Amino acid sequence: MKKLFLLLIIALILGSSACAKPAPTPEAALSLQGKSILMIIAHQGFRDEEYQEPRQLFEARGATITVASSSLETAKGSLGAQVKPDLLLKNMTVSDYDAIVFIGGPGAQEYWNDPVAHAIVQEAVAQSKVLAAICIAPATLAKAGVLKGKNATVFSSEAEALKAGGANYTDASVERDGLIITANGPQAAARFAEEIAKALEE
Predict the structure, then answer these.
(1) Host H or E run for residue 69
(2) pLDDT tens digits, residue range 125-178?
(3) In whole angstroms, what is the distance from residue 188 CA to residue 158 CA?
(4) What tens digit of pLDDT does each residue of 50-106 get?
């Protein structure tokens, strides 16, 4: 009887260990640990999903997020989101970040011809940072002169701005050319975020 009882206990132990699933490694879950990402939003009228979805993914993978804008007052999204920026765009230092991400929405026009935004874009390329923009924000990159000869996409209304800046406009939902990643609107926000994460993980 005792022997049978012992055999039953051993069988239960072996069965439970065989069914146990290995815990996911922290490295896999936090693939962006130690990475610093600057997200640039318009003071008024940034696109909510284009900010929220990438930020959620970046933070879930361990990245540190900083938000910059043209004002430190609470920024308002076109769908009602409210975000308190961490610093003024003019006070940021490109070398502090691994990626610079321009968020779109109608308000993103404020950076199209902004010399501060252009200087950030140009410095990001010079320092080999991941540089990304979504919706109408890729027009800022084009006007800053960094898309010449590059494959890029944008919200369809600004296709001509990209072409005028020398880009090869592809009309893709998400486009990557080296360390420059562009996307054409909120429906591409999740994939846009994945491409940025992939570039940072390389």
Answers:
(1) strand 64-69
(2) 999 999 999 999 999 999 999 999 999 999 999 999 999 999 999 999 999 999
(3) 16
(4) 999 999 999 999 999 999 999 999 999 999 999 999 999 999 999 999 999 999 999
Strand residues in 90-159 grouped as ranges (E): 99-102, 130-134, 151-152
Radius of gyration of the chain (CA): 22
Nearest Cα neighbor of 109 from 71, 86, 66, 143 is 143
CB atoms within 10 A of CB 190: 16
- Letter for the amino acid at 91? N
Q: Catalogue all structural domains in the chain, each as residue range(s) with its CATH number.
A: 32-201 (3.40.50.880)
Which tokens sit at 127? 């320092």
Please say whether the beta carbons of 101 and 132 come within 8 A. Answer: yes
Q: Tokens 């926000």 belong to which residue?
A: 189
Within 13 A of 14's CA, how many CA atoms are on the CB side? 6
